[in-house]
Amino acid sequence: MRSIEQRAVQAYREQFLEEPAIIASAPGRVNLIGEHTDYNGGFVLPCAVEQRVAVAVGAVGHESGQLYSADFRELCPLTGKRTGSWADYPCGVVWALTAQGHEVPLFRATFAGDVPLGSGLSSSAAIEAATALALDAFFHLGISGKDLAVLCQQAENGFVGVNSGIMDQYASLLSQAGMALLIDCRTLEAEAVPLDLAAAGLTLVVCDTQVPRELSATGYNARRQTCERAAHALGVKELRDAHIQDLDRLSGEELKRARHVVTENARVLEAAEALRRDDFVEFGRLMYASHRSLRDDYEVSTPELNAFVDLAAQFRALGARLTGAGFGGCAIALIKSEGAQALVESVRQHFAGRGFPRPIFYTFQPAAGAEVVR
Ligand code: GLA
Q1: What is the distance in A from the centroid of ligand 1 to the CA of 324?
Q2: Strand 202-208 and strand 360-363: pairing?
Q3: What is the pTM of this model?
Q4: pLDDT tens-digit profile of 18-28?
Q5: What is the Å distance from ligand 1's center to 167 Cα?
Q6: Which of 50, 158, 334, 368 is most buried by a 10 A CB count?
Q7: Is 260 a pocket residue for ligand 1 (Cβ < 6 Å)?
């Protein structure tokens, strides 16, 4: 068992003075390329990070269902009401299961996680995925990984109230160790593409800029709406179906947003192709192009994210880009391993000099998706 899973078990023993019946965990994710394409029916290429959320689940007698977070040291009731706390994610999963007609008896659960919160590494998808997988196993629901991903997205959209696409939940549930996952967000078909960074002598540096993503919900929803308007104006179901030559029928914001989505979808497919032949130089070029498009056309970057990408280029990173929704959060750089530390030092200095928040860095090997471990 991973240490984070042991923490969830330990918390279960301490809280409920019993052994849990099921232990599961699910990772956060980093998206390598394919941003703001998922809700346009397009393509994404994420992989799981090593940080996870673990859950230990067991039955209750006649008392009510309970949820305990070892990180927040907080016991919450299992309810059908939103409270604005971490418990909304597991409660949302139960809500979505019930809405789909599944029988979910009362249960109790403890949670422990090390996915950084609110930084764009999808801690919320990790807690949803871990809960969904654990409940599926505990109550013998027999739901497929893909359907669990859809269900977790419904929890996020319909219960938590965040209008996200399917990428984060899908990546958390279905990623494989050592692989990136090319997901077609319309058909929900996926292909695991080997990503052996160590063998290539490369490191993926994640920079959490620590810029709070306060405006992200409004900005995110506004982007979604503009994309829908653009698709409507072009007479297509989703921007996935638009071609670059169609775009001259659009103007202003709709043109810029649609141009990002159409070119980004093409970049994801090219990037997956580059990975299949271990062409990290081409992969990196596509990362930089993705960042420019997110900065100039989709307008979701920040000075901090741009500064990181510019420094990465100066340090000869093969590629760099913001990752996740943008508006703050994380950026990534793909760089020769021997150069990673110098980049990190320089970003620290540069950020301090410009009065930016103190960034936090992570490196990782692509990790396994959600698992029931016992
Ligand atoms: C957030 C959402 C995802 C996706 C990304 C942008 O992470 O949760 O569904 O839309 O933003 O690519």
Answers
A1: 6
A2: antiparallel
A3: 0.96
A4: 999 999 999 99
A5: 6
A6: 334
A7: no
Catalytic residue among 114, 168, 208, 297: 168
Distance CA 225, CA 231 (A): 10
How many CA atoms, within 13 angstroms, populate the side-chain half-sphere of residue 198?
A: 7
Decide whether any atom of ligand 1 lies within 6 Å of the 231 Cβ. Answer: no
Which among 3, 103, 10 is positioned nearest to 50, based on CA atoms? 3
Is 167 near ligand 1, meaning CB less than 6 Å away? yes
Per-residue tokens: 61: 């007698």
Any atom of ligand 1 within 6 Å of the Cβ of 284? no
What's the Cα-to-Cα distance from 300 to each of 42, 64, 195, 324, rounded to whole Å? Answer: 18, 43, 27, 10
> Closest Cα to atom 8, ligand 1: which residue?
164
Ligand 1 near 156 CB (within 6 A): no
- CA-wise closest residue to 366 among 178, 175, 114, 202: 178
User: Tell me, what amino acid is at 79?
Assistant: T
Hey, which residues does 74 pair with through a beta bridge?
Answer: 69
Quick: pLDDT tens for 272-321. 999 999 999 999 999 999 999 999 999 999 999 999 999 999 999 999 99
Q: Which ligand 1 atom is at minimum distance from the Cα of 162? A: 8
Q: Is 310 a catalytic residue?
A: no
Checking DSSP bridges between strand 66-69 and strand 107-113, what pairing results, if any?
parallel
Q: How crowded is residue 331: how many other Cβ atoms within 10 Å of its Cβ?
A: 29
Cα dist. 195→122, 179, 182, 355 in Å?
20, 5, 11, 36
**Nearest to 58, CA basis, from 21, 90, 87, 23:** 21
Torsion angles phi and psi, residue 172, rounded to 5: -65, -40
pLDDT in tens, 160-197: 988 999 999 999 999 999 999 999 999 999 999 999 99
